[in-house]
């Protein structure tokens, strides 16, 4: 049996890098989104946090998808984006102090 990320079995792929103001918010998003597993065996997803080039803090949420067809990839990514939008909305509403502090740093 081929590995789950074998290019022949899963020829369609996409990597999304979503930047967050802080590593803490990226980690929270990772934890919130990581609990929902892909429903289809035709799609695989890995989530991680990474540091942007030239930085040390892991403030980027990296999402890698592989799928058997472009259609399956599109459906999975659309669903992920809906979930991500909800996580971002909750962070914006409930983590106002962190976002405000991040905006103050960029204004300096």
TrEMBL record:
Transmembrane segments: none annotated. One of its GO terms (biological process) is tRNA threonylcarbamoyladenosine metabolic process. GO terms for cellular component: EKC/KEOPS complex. Pfam families: Pcc1 (PF09341). It comes from the Eukaryota. Belongs to the CTAG/PCC1 family. PANTHER family: EKC/KEOPS COMPLEX SUBUNIT PCC1 FAMILY MEMBER, EKC_KEOPS COMPLEX SUBUNIT LAGE3. This is EKC/KEOPS complex subunit. It comes from Coniochaeta pulveracea.
């Amino acid at each position: 049996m081929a590995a789950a990320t074998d290019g022949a079995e899963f020829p369609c792929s996409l990597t999304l890098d979503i930047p967050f103001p802080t590593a803490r918010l990226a980690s929270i998003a990772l934890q919130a989104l990581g609990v929902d597993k892909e429903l289809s065996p035709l799609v695989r997803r890995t989530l991680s946090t990474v540091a942007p080039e030239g930085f040390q803090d892991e403030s980027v949420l990296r999402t890698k998808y592989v799928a058997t067809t472009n259609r399956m990839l599109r459906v999975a990514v659309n669903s992920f984006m809906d979930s991500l939008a909800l996580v971002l909305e909750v962070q914006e509403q409930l983590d106002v102090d962190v976002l405000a502090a991040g905006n103050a740093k960029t204004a300096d």
